[in-house]
Amino acid sequence: MELSTTTLVLFILLAVSGIAQSIDIPIAKFGGVPNSDITQALTNAWREACGSATASKIVVPGGTYRMRAVDMRGPCKAPIELYVDGTIIAPPNPRDVGDEWQWVKVEYVDYFTLSGSGVFDGQGAMAWKNNDCGTNSNCARTPMNFGFNFVKNAVVRTVTSKDSKNFNVNVLGCQNFTFDGFKIAAPGNSINTDGIHMGRSKGVRILNTNISTGDDCISIGDGSVHTTIYNVRCGPGHGISVGSLGKYTTEAPVEGLVVKKVTFSNTDNGLRIKTWPSAPGTSPISNLHYEDITMINVRNPIIIDQEYCPWNQCNKQNPSKIRISNISFKNIRGTSLTKEGVNLICSSGAPCRQVKLGDIDLKFNGAPAVAVCRNVRPTVVGRAPPCVAA
Ligand SMILES: *[C@@H]1O[C@H](CO)[C@@H](O)[C@H](O)[C@H]1NC(C)=O
Ligand SMILES: *[C@@H]1O[C@H](CO)[C@@H](O)[C@H](O)[C@H]1NC(C)=O
Ligand SMILES: *[C@@H]1O[C@H](CO)[C@@H](O)[C@H](O)[C@H]1NC(C)=O
């Protein structure tokens, strides 16, 4: 008994001192100084951090730095924090970034933290101006600001992603990944600048985060499981979307999403679920719960769209094969820019099941907005607009 207590105390002391002993790795050690290009300095600092047997903290102090694409790859030996107070800017021309997919890449790392008051500025204006992907399927690829690929037990806090050329952040194959106090800022008319897109990931949490951008604030792709979105502000932007889904047979189900305490201001959509008609995918979407949501001048506050077909890229001859079930919308208030504040357009091939509406108070021009329902019979709890046929 005596011995095991002593051992325990020793173990805790060691653990605590182990954390305290995180070593700082200033990028200046590798020649990274303000007003220079720190691509090589950060790459070298990462190599040292990744090889370190004790936890380490790469420090980029205040100042402005230029940087081309950096690939921070694991596996590493101990936890790593990247602490950035400076502003890091990408080359304006996508061709000069050095990676056509992602500018700041973190891959195969366990226990990663990104922190500080820093700004990652993707300088996207030139890329947005030349973006013709709406009409040209062979359009040039432009890099996203951040790619987190197969990262586990990670936290991204307090930094800002600004003016990405493409999606701001892509989360792929990650587990236990938290954004807390994160910021995303791009103009409302910037093209394809989704805030955070995730797919094939489990336990992604987006907390206390403000997103203003030109496309979806958050988009939840196939294989996203146990996602939490809490205390988020979105606008301008296209809202929080699940999907689009159904294009591919290889997709995995979307299961478990809680969206709570979110404000949408002047966004195209609020809460959206979208699947493609005449498409082969069958992976279901289930257990999505939306609660305590404020809508301020939102075009489509609540929208399930199983006939999603932008730019006439498809036909609507055959219904979507995706089943949507166990979805609740509770305490959703504010103003809609259309009369149809609630749109539940489900698939005739797989009608929605267990859809619940509770305490929906959406106004269009001062009058209650209506709900348009197709292939769904929502359960109403408390106050909600009655369904009219589509
Ligand atoms: C999730 O990641 C955080 C941050 O690294 C860590 O503190 C926490 O213990 C992890 N949770 C689990 C269940 O592994
Ligand atoms: C988000 O915006 C609100 C309101 O302007 C502000 O109080 C909060 O500090 C912001 N949070 C972040 C992470 O910027
Ligand atoms: C609906 O979703 C909730 C939350 O994920 C879950 O606890 C519940 O079991 C689900 N209900 C059904 C019938 O699957």
From TrEMBL:
The active site is at H238. Keywords: Cell wall, Cell wall biogenesis/degradation, Glycosidase, Hydrolase, Secreted, Signal. Residues 1-22 form the signal peptide. InterPro entries: Glyco_hydro_28, PbH1, Pectin_lyas_fold, Pectin_lyase_fold/virulence. It holds the Pfam family Glyco_hydro_28. Belongs to the glycosyl hydrolase 28 family. This is Polygalacturonase. It comes from Stylosanthes scabra.
